[in-house]
Amino acid sequence: MSSANITSLRRLSTRDPEFLSTLDKLLAFDNSTDEAIERTVADVLANVRTLGDAAVLDYTRRFDRLDAKTMAELELPLSELETAYKNLPNDQREALKQAAERVRIYHERQKIDSWEYTEADGTRLGQQVTALDRVGLYVPGGKAAYPSSVLMNAIPAKVAGVKELIMVVPTPDGHKNQLVLAAAHLSNVDRVFCVGGAQAVAALAYGTQTIPQVDKIVGPGNAYVASAKRRVFGTVGIDMVAGPSEVLVISDGSGEPEWTAIDLFAQAEHDELAQAILLCPDAGYIDRVAAEIERLLPLQPRKNVISASIYGRGALIHVSDLDEACVVANRIAPEHLELSVANPRALLPKIRHAGAIFMGHYCSESLGDYCAGPNHVLPTSRSARFSSPLGVYDFQKRSSIIEVSEAGAQYLGPIAATLAHGEGLAAHQRAAELRLKR
């Protein structure tokens, strides 16, 4: 790596009068869609909606080079998932098992119950919580295969009580990732189809002769998958349309510079558009982290991706103190926030916007990605200001329960009738008045 690269590493200071405008430009992400992708996806969705299985088979032949004659050839028997799990190397099988158990235990705590209360006149009000009937899980295939994403999406759905979980995963040229299949087995996925791309999203959203329509689609995918999810929203629910991955590290200068540099790399290696930022009041520590970035980058297997991310969208930011770091962090609203400080608990109450918060020097973001327990599906592109991590609650819905007694109708009726009259809705008014005693 040339010495010129390190000089291009973006260094900012909150003392700069233009800091906030510079930061906002750095955070800005152009999520406008490619017109060619949009046209292709629109055609795929329309054809699958009209032709069903025939369109899915055609697109699978064209895009994944799988010449299946029937959809039955694209559905994997559950026994194949179990075999994949049993045939894993012992260390992989045990790691996957332990990660799945930790994810399950954490999400069990997220379950919410139905409730009711009774008023003095006998009126009963409450909330009934029910799980979605059927959910579709998209899992990337080919070059990007993420068994951890299977665990993080499937386990909360099953904990919530989803009756049927259907997984779709592309298998280009027939290649099946055994870790992905093993994760599906551990997560109790009900059906698996070797279908990917926009056609898989369309099949889940509209239903075909073989793949049943689902109520919600979750899981990551490429630009075609993201575009398809956007377009089918409303017909079905979706989890989110995620942007590039992000990490923000707040350091007090007490940690190891090498650890911080590698933690920045851990997000940067996802994607050239990923974002890795350091906030620190210690200018000397920032210099040491910059030196570690220069030293370590040539050693990384994904150094080209990391370099594009770090120098394209990353930054090392000098702040006045940790309080100011928290203010800046809340403006950034990162997907992952590492509080790499001696006393992270002191900062926690000051953090209002973050997808996941990693506390202390020993809590690397990668632990959350795989096995800590909390979900790794997190809001990106500053949406942590109003969004939460994926969880059990995303697979449940709430119905209001209203049971009004005769006495309650005498009290509520005039209120409703008065408001309905004010809105000019005569039938509403009359419906409330008819229950009143004459």
In short:
The protein is α/β, with parallel strands linked by helices. It contains 18 helices and 15 strands.
Describe the structure using short key phrases.
six-stranded mixed sheet, 438 residues, globular, 15 strands, Rossmann fold, six-stranded parallel sheet, single chain, alpha/beta, 3 domains, 18 helices
Report on this model:
This protein folds into three domains: 3-31 and 244-371, 3-Layer(aba) Sandwich (Rossmann fold), CATH 3.40.50.1980; 35-238, Nitrogenase molybdenum iron protein domain (Rossmann fold, 3-Layer(aba) Sandwich), CATH 3.40.50.1980; 406-433. The model is unreliable at 1-7 (pLDDT under 50). α3 (35-51) packs across α4 (53-64), α9 packs parallel to α10 and α11 packs across α12. β13, α15 (344-347) and β14 (356-359) form a beta-alpha-beta unit. 45% of the residues lie in helices and 16% in strands. The strands form three sheets. The protein has a six-stranded parallel sheet, sandwiched between helices. It is an alpha/beta fold and 438 residues long. The protein has helices at 3-7, 19-27, 35-51, 53-64, 78-86, 90-108, 147-160, 178-186, 197-206, 223-232, 257-268, 283-296, 303-313, 322-332, 344-347, 365-370, 406-423, 426-433; strands at 11-13, 75-76, 115-118, 124-131, 134-138, 164-168, 191-193, 216-218, 237-238, 246-251, 275-280, 315-318, 336-340, 356-359, 396-403. The protein has 18 helices and 15 strands. The longest helix is centred in the N-terminal third of the chain and has 19 residues, at 90-108. It is globular.
